[in-house]
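R.M. (postdoc): so does anyone remember the format we settled on? I'll just put the structure tokens first.
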């Protein structure tokens, strides 16, 4: 008898829950509207880079990033690369020279400290440095086969930095 009464109680509880929560089951199932257009994704519009090539020289205006021949840490992530040039060597995947010009929101003094820290932390050697209010210049020996010239100019909102890299191949 106890087994029946338990099953009756359980059955009545389930019926009560189903009737009491009838609103859960009364919702209409909504199928996706396949004919409506997808929501518009807002994407930051960037100008396409302009690329000019002549023999071994490549010039790129408004590139998305700096060339691979410049050490990656020498161009901060938040900077806007204005243009770069590359002069390819006779060997595959090697550059004789590269120039990068970029704008950054960081002031000139902060960029000076950034490059001084970067050069010392990676074990590069400063061959020459010159600082004035108009510009700062660093000549750096990078990995014993690249010479990197860094010029920092104060700008309206931050600074403008020019990097010139030359592969030495035994001599400058």
């Amino acid at each position: 008898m106890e087994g029946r009464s338990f099953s009756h109680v359980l059955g009545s509880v389930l019926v009560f829950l189903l009737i009491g929560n009838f609103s859960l089951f009364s919702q209409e199932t909504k199928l996706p509207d396949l004919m409506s257009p997808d929501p518009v994704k807002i994407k930051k519009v960037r100008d396409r880079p302009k690329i000019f090539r002549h023999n071994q020289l490549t010039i790129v205006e408004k590139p998305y990033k700096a060339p691979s021949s410049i050490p990656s840490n020498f161009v901060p992530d938040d900077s806007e690369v204005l243009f770069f040039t590359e002069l390819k060597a006779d060997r595959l995947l090697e550059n004789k020279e590269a120039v990068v010009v970029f704008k950054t929101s960081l002031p000139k003094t902060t960029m000076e400290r950034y490059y001084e820290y970067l050069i010392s932390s990676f074990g590069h050697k400063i061959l020459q440095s010159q600082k004035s209010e108009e510009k700062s210049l660093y000549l750096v020996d990078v990995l014993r086969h690249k010479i990197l010239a860094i010029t920092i100019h104060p700008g309206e909102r931050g600074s403008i930095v020019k990097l010139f890299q030359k592969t030495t191949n035994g001599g400058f």
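R.M.: ...and that's the designed sequence above, right after the tokens. Also worth knowing: The first helix runs from residue 2 to 20. The domain at 50-167 is CATH 3.40.1000.10 (Protein Transport Mog1p; Chain A).
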